[in-house]
Amino acid sequence: MAYAIAAPAITTVPVIGGENFPVHRIYCVGRNYAEHAREMGHDPNREPPFFFMKPADAIVPTGSTIPYPPKTSDYQHEIEMVVALAKGGRDIPVEKALDLVFGYAVGLDMTRRDVQGEAKKLGRPWDMGKGFDQSAPCAPISPASKVGHIAKGAIWLKVNGEARQKGDISQLIWSVAETIAYLSGYVTLAPGDLIYSGTPAGVGAVKRGDKLEGHVDGLTDLAITIA
Ligand code: MN
Protein backbone atom coordinates (compact mmCIF):
# COMPACT_ATOMS: atom_id res chain seq x y z
CA MET A 1 0.00 0.00 0.00
CA ALA A 2 1.23 3.50 -0.81
CA TYR A 3 0.83 5.76 2.19
CA ALA A 4 0.63 9.52 1.64
CA ILE A 5 2.95 10.04 4.63
CA ALA A 6 5.20 7.63 6.54
CA ALA A 7 3.04 5.20 8.54
CA PRO A 8 3.17 5.73 12.33
CA ALA A 9 5.18 3.17 14.28
CA ILE A 10 3.36 0.49 16.28
CA THR A 11 3.76 1.08 20.02
CA THR A 12 5.02 -2.00 21.85
CA VAL A 13 5.55 -3.16 25.43
CA PRO A 14 8.30 -5.72 26.13
CA VAL A 15 7.15 -9.19 27.21
CA ILE A 16 9.17 -11.08 29.81
CA GLY A 17 11.07 -13.67 27.78
CA GLY A 18 12.05 -11.40 24.90
CA GLU A 19 9.08 -10.78 22.61
CA ASN A 20 7.11 -7.54 22.30
CA PHE A 21 3.40 -6.86 22.73
CA PRO A 22 1.91 -4.58 20.04
CA VAL A 23 -0.50 -2.05 21.58
CA HIS A 24 -3.88 -1.48 19.95
CA ARG A 25 -5.97 0.63 22.37
CA ILE A 26 -5.57 1.65 26.01
CA TYR A 27 -8.69 1.53 28.18
CA CYS A 28 -8.69 2.72 31.79
CA VAL A 29 -11.17 1.98 34.58
CA GLY A 30 -12.20 4.84 36.89
CA ARG A 31 -12.60 4.40 40.65
CA ASN A 32 -12.07 0.66 40.99
CA TYR A 33 -10.85 0.62 44.61
CA ALA A 34 -13.27 1.74 47.35
CA GLU A 35 -10.76 3.82 49.31
CA HIS A 36 -9.66 5.70 46.21
CA ALA A 37 -13.30 6.36 45.24
CA ARG A 38 -13.78 7.80 48.74
CA GLU A 39 -10.64 9.95 48.56
CA MET A 40 -11.99 11.41 45.30
CA GLY A 41 -15.33 12.20 46.99
CA HIS A 42 -17.48 9.34 45.68
CA ASP A 43 -19.49 6.50 47.18
CA PRO A 44 -17.79 3.27 46.09
CA ASN A 45 -20.84 1.06 46.49
CA ARG A 46 -20.34 -0.68 43.19
CA GLU A 47 -21.55 2.00 40.83
CA PRO A 48 -21.10 0.31 37.43
CA PRO A 49 -17.51 0.60 36.15
CA PHE A 50 -16.80 3.49 33.80
CA PHE A 51 -14.02 3.86 31.27
CA PHE A 52 -11.82 6.40 29.58
CA MET A 53 -8.99 6.01 27.11
CA LYS A 54 -5.43 7.00 26.45
CA PRO A 55 -3.78 6.96 23.02
CA ALA A 56 -1.63 3.86 22.36
CA ASP A 57 1.49 5.98 21.93
CA ALA A 58 1.15 7.38 25.47
CA ILE A 59 3.03 4.21 26.57
CA VAL A 60 6.44 4.77 28.20
CA PRO A 61 8.81 1.89 29.00
CA THR A 62 10.22 1.27 32.45
CA GLY A 63 13.52 3.02 33.15
CA SER A 64 12.40 6.16 31.31
CA THR A 65 12.77 9.74 32.41
CA ILE A 66 9.64 11.61 31.39
CA PRO A 67 9.20 15.38 31.25
CA TYR A 68 6.87 17.18 33.65
CA PRO A 69 3.97 17.85 31.24
CA PRO A 70 2.80 21.32 30.20
CA LYS A 71 -0.53 22.88 31.29
CA THR A 72 -0.60 21.44 34.79
CA SER A 73 0.60 22.25 38.27
CA ASP A 74 -0.94 19.13 39.81
CA TYR A 75 0.62 16.17 37.99
CA GLN A 76 -0.35 13.00 39.87
CA HIS A 77 0.54 9.30 40.02
CA GLU A 78 -1.96 6.43 39.91
CA ILE A 79 -0.35 2.99 40.25
CA GLU A 80 -2.40 0.31 38.46
CA MET A 81 -2.27 -3.28 37.29
CA VAL A 82 -2.44 -3.44 33.50
CA VAL A 83 -4.21 -6.30 31.70
CA ALA A 84 -2.98 -7.14 28.18
CA LEU A 85 -5.39 -8.89 25.80
CA ALA A 86 -4.38 -11.61 23.34
CA LYS A 87 -7.90 -11.98 21.98
CA GLY A 88 -10.88 -9.72 21.43
CA GLY A 89 -14.62 -9.85 21.02
CA ARG A 90 -17.82 -8.22 22.20
CA ASP A 91 -20.40 -9.10 24.83
CA ILE A 92 -17.94 -11.46 26.50
CA PRO A 93 -19.50 -13.36 29.46
CA VAL A 94 -17.66 -13.00 32.79
CA GLU A 95 -16.88 -16.76 32.84
CA LYS A 96 -15.06 -16.51 29.48
CA ALA A 97 -13.37 -13.15 30.04
CA LEU A 98 -10.03 -14.39 31.37
CA ASP A 99 -9.60 -16.49 28.19
CA LEU A 100 -8.86 -13.18 26.41
CA VAL A 101 -5.97 -12.24 28.70
CA PHE A 102 -2.40 -12.48 27.43
CA GLY A 103 -0.74 -11.22 30.59
CA TYR A 104 -0.32 -8.57 33.28
CA ALA A 105 1.99 -5.62 33.95
CA VAL A 106 2.55 -2.77 36.38
CA GLY A 107 1.48 0.61 34.99
CA LEU A 108 0.99 4.23 35.92
CA ASP A 109 -2.07 6.26 34.90
CA MET A 110 -0.37 9.66 35.05
CA THR A 111 -2.94 12.42 35.46
CA ARG A 112 -3.14 16.19 35.18
CA ARG A 113 -5.46 16.34 38.21
CA ASP A 114 -6.17 20.05 37.90
CA VAL A 115 -7.15 19.68 34.21
CA GLN A 116 -9.27 16.60 35.01
CA GLY A 117 -10.93 18.42 37.93
CA GLU A 118 -11.82 21.41 35.75
CA ALA A 119 -13.26 19.05 33.10
CA LYS A 120 -15.38 17.28 35.73
CA LYS A 121 -16.70 20.59 37.02
CA LEU A 122 -17.61 21.84 33.54
CA GLY A 123 -18.96 18.49 32.26
CA ARG A 124 -16.19 18.37 29.64
CA PRO A 125 -14.18 15.36 28.40
CA TRP A 126 -11.25 14.10 30.50
CA ASP A 127 -8.90 13.56 27.56
CA MET A 128 -6.45 16.39 28.21
CA GLY A 129 -6.32 15.43 31.90
CA LYS A 130 -5.71 11.73 31.22
CA GLY A 131 -4.76 10.97 27.62
CA PHE A 132 -1.74 13.19 27.03
CA ASP A 133 1.80 12.41 25.82
CA GLN A 134 3.73 9.87 27.95
CA SER A 135 0.82 9.48 30.37
CA ALA A 136 0.91 5.66 30.36
CA PRO A 137 4.18 4.21 31.73
CA CYS A 138 4.07 0.41 31.58
CA ALA A 139 6.55 -2.21 32.83
CA PRO A 140 7.23 -5.42 30.86
CA ILE A 141 4.26 -7.80 30.56
CA SER A 142 4.32 -11.16 32.35
CA PRO A 143 2.38 -13.77 30.32
CA ALA A 144 -0.50 -15.42 32.20
CA SER A 145 0.85 -18.72 30.84
CA LYS A 146 3.83 -18.20 33.19
CA VAL A 147 2.47 -16.27 36.19
CA GLY A 148 -1.20 -17.28 36.11
CA HIS A 149 -4.08 -14.83 36.52
CA ILE A 150 -3.44 -12.12 39.09
CA ALA A 151 -6.41 -11.86 41.46
CA LYS A 152 -4.65 -10.94 44.71
CA GLY A 153 -1.36 -9.59 45.99
CA ALA A 154 0.10 -6.27 47.04
CA ILE A 155 0.09 -3.26 44.73
CA TRP A 156 2.14 -0.27 45.82
CA LEU A 157 3.92 2.87 44.67
CA LYS A 158 6.92 4.52 46.26
CA VAL A 159 8.12 8.03 45.48
CA ASN A 160 11.81 8.63 46.31
CA GLY A 161 11.73 5.44 48.37
CA GLU A 162 8.75 6.52 50.47
CA ALA A 163 5.44 4.59 50.38
CA ARG A 164 2.65 6.63 48.75
CA GLN A 165 0.04 4.17 47.51
CA LYS A 166 -0.74 0.75 48.89
CA GLY A 167 -3.50 -1.74 48.23
CA ASP A 168 -4.23 -5.31 47.25
CA ILE A 169 -5.46 -6.55 43.87
CA SER A 170 -8.18 -8.47 45.76
CA GLN A 171 -9.70 -5.07 46.66
CA LEU A 172 -10.69 -4.33 43.05
CA ILE A 173 -14.40 -3.42 43.11
CA TRP A 174 -14.75 -4.91 39.61
CA SER A 175 -12.53 -7.91 39.01
CA VAL A 176 -10.48 -8.22 35.83
CA ALA A 177 -13.06 -10.65 34.39
CA GLU A 178 -15.99 -8.38 35.27
CA THR A 179 -14.19 -5.36 33.83
CA ILE A 180 -13.52 -7.15 30.52
CA ALA A 181 -17.15 -8.32 30.36
CA TYR A 182 -18.52 -4.81 31.00
CA LEU A 183 -16.12 -3.08 28.62
CA SER A 184 -16.92 -5.56 25.84
CA GLY A 185 -20.53 -4.44 26.03
CA TYR A 186 -19.45 -0.94 24.94
CA VAL A 187 -16.72 -1.72 22.40
CA THR A 188 -15.36 -4.64 20.44
CA LEU A 189 -12.18 -5.61 22.26
CA ALA A 190 -9.18 -6.57 20.14
CA PRO A 191 -5.84 -8.34 20.48
CA GLY A 192 -3.32 -5.71 21.62
CA ASP A 193 -5.73 -3.85 23.88
CA LEU A 194 -4.46 -2.85 27.32
CA ILE A 195 -6.74 -2.22 30.30
CA TYR A 196 -5.49 -0.09 33.21
CA SER A 197 -7.57 -1.59 36.01
CA GLY A 198 -7.79 1.32 38.45
CA THR A 199 -5.74 2.73 41.30
CA PRO A 200 -5.77 2.16 45.08
CA ALA A 201 -5.88 5.03 47.57
CA GLY A 202 -3.02 7.43 48.11
CA VAL A 203 -2.84 9.28 44.78
CA GLY A 204 -0.84 12.47 44.95
CA ALA A 205 1.31 14.98 43.13
CA VAL A 206 4.83 14.42 41.83
CA LYS A 207 7.49 17.03 41.18
CA ARG A 208 10.54 17.34 38.96
CA GLY A 209 13.30 14.93 39.96
CA ASP A 210 10.98 12.44 41.69
CA LYS A 211 11.73 8.74 41.29
CA LEU A 212 8.63 6.51 41.09
CA GLU A 213 8.76 2.76 41.80
CA GLY A 214 5.65 0.68 41.15
CA HIS A 215 5.00 -2.90 42.19
CA VAL A 216 2.42 -5.67 41.93
CA ASP A 217 3.22 -9.02 43.59
CA GLY A 218 4.30 -11.55 40.97
CA LEU A 219 5.04 -8.97 38.23
CA THR A 220 8.07 -6.95 37.13
CA ASP A 221 8.50 -3.59 38.88
CA LEU A 222 8.12 -0.24 37.09
CA ALA A 223 10.64 2.59 37.54
CA ILE A 224 10.07 6.10 36.19
CA THR A 225 11.84 9.40 36.85
CA ILE A 226 10.23 12.81 36.38
CA ALA A 227 12.65 15.17 34.57
MN1 MN B 1 -6.57 5.52 36.99
List the defining traits of the structure above.
227 residues, alpha+beta, six-stranded mixed sheet, five-stranded mixed sheet, globular
What is this structure, in a nutshell?
The protein has six helices and 18 strands.
Strands, helices and their partners?
Blueprint: E1 12-14, E2 20-22, E3 26-30, H1 34-39, E4 50-54, E5 59-61, E6 65-66, E7 75-77, E8 79-85, H2 94-97, E9 101-108, E10 111-112, H3 113-122, H4 127-130, E11 136-138, E12 142-143, H5 144-147, E13 154-159, E14 162-168, H6 176-186, E15 194-196, E16 204-205, E17 211-216, E18 222-226
Parallel strand pairs: 3-15, 5-11, 6-18
Antiparallel strand pairs: 1-2, 3-4, 7-10, 7-16, 8-9, 8-15, 9-12, 13-14, 13-17, 17-18
The structure holds manganese (II) ion.
Q: How would you describe what is shown here?
A:
- The protein has helices spanning 34-39, 94-97, 113-122, 127-130, 144-147, 176-186; strands at residues 12-14, 20-22, 26-30, 50-54, 59-61, 65-66, 75-77, 79-85, 101-108, 111-112, 136-138, 142-143, 154-159, 162-168, 194-196, 204-205, 211-216, 222-226.
- It has 227 residues and is α+β, with helices and mostly antiparallel strands.
- It has one domain: Fumarylacetoacetase-like, C-terminal domain (Fumarylacetoacetate hydrolase, domain 2).
- The protein is globular.
- The relative contact order is 0.27.
- Manganese (II) ion is lined by residues 28, 78, 80, 109, 196, 198-199.
